[in-house]
Every structure is written in C-alpha cells, then in structure tokens.
Amino acid sequence: MPHSVSAKKRLRQNLRNRDRNRAAKSDLRTSIKRVIDALGEGDAALARERFRVVAKKADRAAAARTIHPNRAARIKSRLSARMLAASKGEAKASGGAKTAGTSK
Fold this sequence. Notes:
By secondary structure, the chain is mainly α. Helix content is 73%, strand content 0%. The protein has 3 helices and no strands. α2 (44-63) runs antiparallel to α3 (69-87).
C-alpha cells in the first residue's frame, strides 16, 4: 500500500486508467468479432459498416496509446484483406489465420 499522498493519488489514477484501457480493448475485440461474423454470414454491406467502426475504435485506442499504433494498423489491414477476399467470392478468407487482432 502506498504511504505518501502522491503515491496514493498515483494508485487511484492507475486503477482508473487500467479500467478505461481494459474497456477500450474489450470493445475493440468485440467490434472485430462483429465484422468477422458479418463476413461469415456473407453480408458485405454490414461488414463494411462495422469495419468503419472498428477502424475508428482502433485509431482512437492507438492515439491514446492503449494499443500500439502498429497493432491498430495490423487490425485494419487484416480485416480489410478479409473483406476484399470475401467480396471476390472466396469463402472464409485467410481460413488458417486467427481472428484479426484478437490474440495478444
């Protein structure tokens, strides 16, 4: 337990920031899964709309340094590649790969 006033404040800030970061990451992962589900159903229009949401959330998380900027770029790149492959008619684009950006 912290003893000084500044250390106590720092602990409060760390706990608050940890909760905020966890929520942002969880929300991002959920949004990614929604895009993948839409692609699996074959609904390209819904997938495009959800992809815009994922891209925005990933960019905001990267700007806040909740995730690394390269990770945000990787998430967007992999999802857009899946969407392109799905639009060309390939079933389950990159079938051997894990879901885009959900693993640590």
